[in-house]
């Protein structure tokens, strides 16, 4: 088909469609330097015996076990359910657990009164937390004079040793 | 010769499977062998890969949807098995695929199942220098004499692209053989 009106030449029908094929055929005829055979051979009767060898392999082929069998899925689901159940029970148990703040002050006092810990005041100071104790705690809670007199009465045998008059 | 569709149907039917599989093996074993041998070069390796190919076909026949021809599906499996075999062997030996293939070609001289002359050995050396796809196309077209349309379906490449690749491969091989 002549698409250019100025061009008086024409081509046979389908020329361009078959051009590539004809070119490649021509090119493929220039393979003279390449030998035709590959040089490979197979052992005698190899193809005749191949089926028997293959059947032997297929019989010994381990059965394919599906990665996600029904039994495995059930086992995994049961394990997950058990873990969830145990953790929920544990949370419930943990939420019911008593803490120190739940104890009544009277119970604590009774405990200390009825049990002899054999701790000296110095040892108690080592045990008691002092980090939250401020100087202001002492100022806001002044020692009552009655308590002071009771303490002195019980613990001091010789009042002269105190020498109150000299220090006043 | 049994129709391909019938063969596929029988391969998927339990009581006819064994017989149909034998037909399949008998139909394709020789053609697939040469396809594989052209890649792995040694007979023992080709035998291993060919058996693996048929085992894979047997185990996966139910997954064959018929989108392509059975012939090209099996050919594709064989080609991939052979290429993977080369890659795995090269990895095991800690060398590149190219170095491993060079090694395969040099082993041919002592191979009892290679009886090629000097020019045929040179041709194998020359083929080893080609890029993977050109190598496949050349082997399929030149030695196995497959049609471009068949190669096109196996390698999922246009016929035009195959012709160009084949022509390039031939030119490279000729140059290699003339220079050597």
Automatic annotation (TrEMBL), chain A:
<protein>
    <submittedName>
        <fullName>Uncharacterized protein</fullName>
    </submittedName>
</protein>
UniProtKB/TrEMBL annotation, chain B:
<dbReference type="Pfam" id="PF08281">
    <property type="entry name" value="Sigma70_r4_2"/>
</dbReference>
<comment type="similarity">
    <text>Belongs to the sigma-70 factor family. ECF subfamily.</text>
</comment>
<keyword id="KW-0238">DNA-binding</keyword>
<dbReference type="InterPro" id="IPR014284">
    <property type="entry name" value="RNA_pol_sigma-70_dom"/>
</dbReference>
<dbReference type="InterPro" id="IPR000838">
    <property type="entry name" value="RNA_pol_sigma70_ECF_CS"/>
</dbReference>
<dbReference type="GO" id="GO:0006352">
    <property type="term" value="P:DNA-templated transcription initiation"/>
</dbReference>
<dbReference type="GO" id="GO:0003677">
    <property type="term" value="F:DNA binding"/>
</dbReference>
<dbReference type="InterPro" id="IPR039425">
    <property type="entry name" value="RNA_pol_sigma-70-like"/>
</dbReference>
<dbReference type="InterPro" id="IPR013249">
    <property type="entry name" value="RNA_pol_sigma70_r4_t2"/>
</dbReference>
<keyword id="KW-0731">Sigma factor</keyword>
<feature type="domain" description="RNA polymerase sigma factor 70 region 4 type 2">
    <location>
        <begin position="121"/>
        <end position="173"/>
    </location>
</feature>
<keyword id="KW-0804">Transcription</keyword>
<dbReference type="InterPro" id="IPR007627">
    <property type="entry name" value="RNA_pol_sigma70_r2"/>
</dbReference>
<protein>
    <recommendedName>
        <fullName>RNA polymerase sigma factor</fullName>
    </recommendedName>
</protein>
<dbReference type="GO" id="GO:0016987">
    <property type="term" value="F:sigma factor activity"/>
</dbReference>
<dbReference type="Pfam" id="PF04542">
    <property type="entry name" value="Sigma70_r2"/>
</dbReference>
<dbReference type="InterPro" id="IPR036388">
    <property type="entry name" value="WH-like_DNA-bd_sf"/>
</dbReference>
<keyword id="KW-0805">Transcription regulation</keyword>
<dbReference type="InterPro" id="IPR013325">
    <property type="entry name" value="RNA_pol_sigma_r2"/>
</dbReference>
<feature type="domain" description="RNA polymerase sigma-70 region 2">
    <location>
        <begin position="24"/>
        <end position="90"/>
    </location>
</feature>
<dbReference type="InterPro" id="IPR013324">
    <property type="entry name" value="RNA_pol_sigma_r3/r4-like"/>
</dbReference>
């Amino acid at each position: 088909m002549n698409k250019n009106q100025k061009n008086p030449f024409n081509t046979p029908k389908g020329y361009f469609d078959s051009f590539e094929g004809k070119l490649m055929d021509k090119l493929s005829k220039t393979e003279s330097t390449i030998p035709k055979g590959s040089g490979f051979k197979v052992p005698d009767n190899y193809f005749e015996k191949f089926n028997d060898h293959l059947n032997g392999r297929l019989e010994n082929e381990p059965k394919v076990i599906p990665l996600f069998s029904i039994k495995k899925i059930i086992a995994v689901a049961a394990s997950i359910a058990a873990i969830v159940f145990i953790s929920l029970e544990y949370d419930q148990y943990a939420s019911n657990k008593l803490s120190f703040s739940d104890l009544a002050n009277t119970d604590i006092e009774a405990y200390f009164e009825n049990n002899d810990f054999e701790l000296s005041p110095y040892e108690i100071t080592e045990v008691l937390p002092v980090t939250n104790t401020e100087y202001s705690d002492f100022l806001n809670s002044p020692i009552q004079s009655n308590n002071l007199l009771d303490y002195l009465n019980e613990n001091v045998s010789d009042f002269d040793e105190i020498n109150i008059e000299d220090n006043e | 010769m049994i129709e391909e569709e019938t063969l596929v149907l029988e391969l998927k039917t339990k009581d006819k499977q064994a017989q149909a599989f034998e037909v399949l093996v008998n139909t394709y074993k020789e053609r697939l062998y040469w396809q594989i041998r052209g890649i792995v070069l040694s007979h023992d390796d080709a035998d291993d890969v060919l058996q693996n190919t048929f085992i894979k076909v047997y185990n996966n026949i139910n997954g064959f949807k018929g989108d392509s021809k059975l012939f090209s599906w099996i050919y594709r499996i064989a080609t991939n098995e052979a290429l993977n075999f080369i890659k795995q062997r090269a990895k095991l030996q800690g060398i590149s695929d190219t170095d491993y293939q060079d090694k395969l070609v040099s082993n041919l001289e002592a191979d009892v199942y290679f009886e090629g002359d000097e020019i045929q050995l040179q041709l194998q050396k020359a083929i080893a220098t080609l890029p993977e796809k050109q190598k496949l196309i050349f082997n399929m077209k030149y030695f196995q004499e497959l049609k471009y349309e068949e190669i096109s379906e196996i390698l999922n490449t246009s016929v035009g692209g195959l012709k160009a690749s084949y022509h390039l491969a031939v030119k490279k091989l000729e140059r290699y053989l003339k220079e050597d």
